[in-house]
Amino acid sequence: MKTALTLCSLLCLIILLFPACGEDEVEMTPRTEFYNDGEFVFLFSTEGNNVTLELEALLDTINQIGGTFPDTDFYTVYADYNRNGVIDEGIDVLFSPLEDGRICRATLIRQQATAPCDFPGNVSGQSRFQTSEAAATDHVTHTLTLPKDQLTAGDTASLVINMYAPETNSQRLPSNDTLFVNTLEISW
User: Fold this and answer.
1) Is 61 helix (H, G, I), strand (E, B) or coil?
2) 127-132 — which CB contacts under 8 Å span 24+ positions?
3) In sequence order, which residues have a C-beta less than 8 Å from that of residue 24 and are 6 or more positions away?
4) Which of 37, 29, 74, 38 minimizes the C-alpha distance to 186?
5) Cis omega before residue 174 (within 30°)?
6) Half-sphere exposure (CA, 13 Å, Cβ side) for 23?
7) For residues 119 and 81, what is the distance between their CA atoms, to the nearest angstrom?
8) How many C-beta neighbours within 10 Å does residue 176 have?
9) 70-127 pLDDT per residue, tens
10) Distance CA 102, CA 110 (A)
11) DSSP three-state, residue 3
12) How far apart are the first and last CA of the chain?
């Protein structure tokens, strides 16, 4: 009887100490704000090998999502893939939605030129007109989900985000300087 009780106690202890034994744990980070100037709020979160960017235009209270360019709300995320502060042809990339909802991924050639779009199946995006924790008024929010290794080879990504609304035109954040002179950093 003592042997059975001791064996039972040992099994209970093993279960308590190793509850995830045999299960793959997915590393997650909570939604984290990485830019907020009162007009735009940018957040990111990770789950496993993916990162999700949430791009909110708090003052864009006119729903022009899904329109035809130039009468539409959209964004472009630029990634300085090797984080060296300059555009590297064929290395640095951008992501931007097209009118049909697909996400264009293109490598940069120079400031105003890219290679043709490709459409990775593991990149997705969505645009919504809604309220959020940042603002009680309906506004434009874009979401982009993609593998981390599409933004950088390491654990920190250097980004520039261009937000476009027909009534305000284009705003590059963190600044309108030459691409990648100033960047927004996210780490996981």
Assistant:
1) coil
2) 127/65, 127/66, 127/73, 127/74, 127/97, 128/65, 129/63, 129/65, 132/41, 132/56
3) none
4) 29
5) yes
6) 7
7) 18
8) 13
9) 888 999 999 999 999 999 999 999 999 998 889 999 999 998 899 999 999 999 999 9
10) 23
11) helix
12) 51
> Do residues 39 and 58 lie in contact, with contact meaning Cβ atoms separated by under 8 Å?
yes
Q: What is the largest CA-CA distance in the chain?
A: 80
Burial environment of residue 15 by CB neighbours within 10 A (0 to 12, 13 to 18, 19 or more): exposed
How much is the CA Rg of the chain, to the nearest whole Å?
21
Contact 179, 170 (CB under 8 A): no
Give the whole-angstrom CA distance, residue 146 versus residue 52: 7
User: Span 177-185, mean pLDDT?
Assistant: 94
